[in-house]
Amino acid sequence: MLLVDAANVIGSRPNGWWRDRSGAARRFVESARDAVVAGRLDPPVVVVLEGRARDGAAESTADGVEVIHAHGIGDDTIAALAADACDPSAHPAVVVTADRELAGRVRRAGGDVVGPTWLLDRLA
Hints:
5 helices; single chain; globular; Rossmann fold; six-stranded mixed β-sheet; alpha/beta
């Protein structure tokens, strides 16, 4: 399972996303779905949205991508999902983030972490 800290990944590029957070989230989710359909990403992909970005994509599952709305702090939602997905008999969860604190929480739970560039290269 690939878990995406959408705020962190979207915020890693200074392309004006802050002027339209919901639009940036919508475009990001569409790009993730396109990448799964094209075979550049393996499903399942879980995109966690928080704050105003939640207005850009409804909670749903389509084309191998699930959108989850964090109802509190997004990092807490991602860390909990990663911990739940880290079954020793399966592949660990992989979280996409550059947030050091979140990365540490994920690794302590048995998950792996990759940076935003790893994902953005696959979305292009």
